[in-house]
Amino acid sequence: MDYVFLIIGSLVIITCFYFIISPFFSSGESQAAGTEAEGERLTLEQVYSAVNELEMDFLMKKINREDFEKMKENYQLLAADLLREETETLKQGKRMLPKGKGNLQADEAEEEILRELRKIRQHKG
Fold this sequence. Notes:
Layout: H1 2-40, H2 44-59, H3 65-93, H4 101-124
Helix pairs in contact: 2-3
């Protein structure tokens, strides 16, 4: 009878050990794949929110000035690249109008929209 209890106890311990240890090995692979997919789908709004969080961390003295400036510059470059990509896709998607009065008005309207967006982003961030 003692052997039966030893075998059952060993199986219970091995099963518990398996369930405790297995997440450490399987989660690393899925998280790495998830971060790559998220990095590809990064939006301009996410970059701005990251900069806001970075500024809050700096104001709360969680990071030093050098790290703050370096990371903020990286985020700003990333935001500039995203803006450049957005404008290129907009230009490619927009049909080419012949140079004239209609095209001038469209360009002025687009510039006005971009100015208003910058004001909103500065006010928000």
